Structure formats: C-alpha cells, structure tokens
UniProtKB/TrEMBL annotation:
Residues 163-206 are annotated as: Disordered. Residues 1-153 form the Protein kinase domain. GO terms for molecular function: ATP binding; protein kinase activity. InterPro entries: Kinase-like_dom_sf, MAPK, Prot_kinase_dom. Transmembrane segments: none annotated. This is Protein kinase domain-containing protein. Keywords: ATP-binding, Nucleotide-binding. Residues 176-191 have a biased composition (Basic and acidic residues). Signal peptide: none annotated.
Length: 206
C-alpha cells in the first residue's frame, strides 16, 4: 500500500493482522511511523529493504516512485551512532517546530531484528507466525487458512480444525429463532417509535 501497489487483497490484510498481533503482544505499535515515508524507514529497519530477491515487484514500485530505501547499518557501529545522533537532532527540531517536519525517508536506519523489536513479549511460535505475516512479498504471506495451521493456534487444546469449523458453521435452529425474535423486536420498537412521534405531533397542534 505504501508503495502504491495497484493490487489489494487478503495478503494486505495478513500484513495488517501481523501488525495488530505484534501490538497486542507488546502493547505498542511495531512500526510507529509519523508519516508514510517515516513508516517505510521503520519497516526497513526491522524487515530490511525490498529487493529483487525478497520482493522484485516492490523494488520496481519504489523505482517508479523515485524512492530510495534507506541504508541499513548494524547496531553498535560508528554508522549506527551517527544515525542515532541524526535521529535525536531531528526529534529536537520536531519538538521545537511543534511537531512539524519535512517528510522524507531517512538516509540510513539501524538494523533491528524482529526478536529485538518484540523484546521478551513473543515466544518462538508467535515469532514464526509474525515473520511470515510480515513478509515484504504478498505472495509469500500465508492465507488465513494456512495461518490457522501454525503451531501458535494449536496450543491450549485449540486446533486449526476447530477454528475453521467454527468459522464455517451454518446457522442452527436456535440461531434462526433468535434472529426471528430480533427482527420481531425491531418491528415492535419501530411501531412504538412511530406512535410516540404521532403523539408528539398531535400535542404540538393543540
């Protein structure tokens, strides 16, 4: 979406689910971007940049936009310290300007593994699911059905079969009766509302 891809489907939703899942585990956004371009930099920091190997279409979309992905430097290096210094200076300018800043992609970002970004809040099963949901290439992300087969969904006695069956259950007689009762209740409420409206109009004429 950030690279203006014309394709939108369930893989985009899979990525969104991954972001929400990460936030549920850590209680904070995984990619807290302040703008689209800042968001891209934060994605690259954790996922690395899209290229001809991990997502050829993404590399072409970026080139079409004239977008250059930031360089990725390792933590603890001289380059990483320089990146941090620039980020701190940018944050000070932003505070001074009341939160406003020029929107641009960072020249470089510090590499942060998904494990480090999640801290101690995610176990290996959760990390495995996250890694696949957050792949750059939409075709490499699992479909909802495949995602339900991951070990994460099989713990605590819950199986993918249970989840899939529950999702596809047809309405039972009980549920049909409940639906009919709700429809009848709605009709009665509509009648009562109409009566109140007529009564109020009548009292106004008097």
């Amino acid at each position: 979406v950030l690279l203006r891809s014309p394709r939108y489907g369930s893989p985009v939703d899979a990525f969104a689910v991954g972001c929400v899942f990460a936030e549920l585990l850590t209680l904070r956004p995984l990619f807290p971007g302040r703008s689209e371009l800042d968001q891209i930099g934060r994605l690259v920091s954790v996922l690395g940049p899209p290229d001809e190997e991990n997502w050829p279409e993404g590399a072409r979309l970026a080139a079409r936009m004239g977008l250059r992905f930031p360089d990725v430097v390792d933590e603890g290096t001289v380059e990483a310290r320089e990146v941090r210094r620039r980020e701190d200076a940018k944050a000070r300018r932003r505070r001074k300007n009341g939160g406003e800043e020029n929107d641009c992609v960072a020249e470089a970002v510090v590499r942060t593994s998904l494990e480090k970004a999640m801290g101690s809040r995610a176990n290996e099963e959760e990390l495995r699911l996250l890694r696949d949901l957050l792949r750059w290439d939409p075709k490499a992300r699992p479909s909802p059905g495949k995602a339900l087969k991951y070990p994460y969904f099989a713990k605590d006695g819950t199986t993918a079969a249970n989840l899939t069956t529950a999702a596809n259950l047809t309405p039972t007689r009980g549920s049909n009766r409940t639906e009919r009762h709700q429809r009848n209740s709605d009709k009665e409420n509509d009648k009562a509302s109409t009566a109140v409206t007529k009564a109020s109009h009548g009292s106004g004429k008097k």
